[in-house]
Write a structure and sequence with these properties.
Helix content is 43%, strand content 20%. The protein contains 3 helices and 4 strands, in the order ααββαββ.
Length: 143
């Protein structure tokens, strides 16, 4: 992942671990005051929210622990790499802007990501996906 992607994840983690956890704890405390916990919808909803929050925190921590920073200057060469943004066009003329990223973009391990890595503007690449192969043309590459 790029430095900016790592910073984005670290920022989200700080938000979830600080104010996010505090909100959930407060919601649970408020719901406890409503009485019998066995029939208390607010309490169960707050506990569910807590579980989802803790799951997301674990996901982000794991992703950060396993992350490898990539050199963004290599993407400036006009070749698609991790952190690159590209505009592509499929065989039907549909255009799409993509970012190769494991954080909020097209994963480099996905069929489209694998096909685009190393491509330059003007290249045509074949994408081999589970539902069949298709071809895309790279219109532009940026960082």
């Amino acid at each position: 992942m790029t430095r900016s992607q790592k910073a984005k994840l670290e920022s989200e983690l700080r938000e979830l671990e600080g104010p996010g956890r505090a909100e959930v704890v407060q919601a649970i405390a408020t719901a406890r005051g409503f009485g019998d916990l066995s029939e208390n919808f607010e309490y169960h909803a707050a506990k569910n929210d807590q579980g989802l929050l803790e799951h997301r925190i674990r996901q982000i921590r794991d992703r950060l622990d396993r992350s490898v920073l990539v050199d963004e200057t290599s993407s400036a060469s006009g070749t698609i790499g991790v952190g690159s943004k590209a505009e592509i066009e499929d065989e039907h003329g549909e255009r799409m802007s993509v970012e190769i990223s494991s954080v909020g973009g097209i994963s480099p391990e996905s069929p489209l990501g694998r096909a685009l890595l190393g491509a330059k503007a003007g290249d045509e690449v074949d994408v081999h996906a589970p539902k069949g192969a298709w071809r895309v043309r790279v219109l532009s590459v940026g960082v």
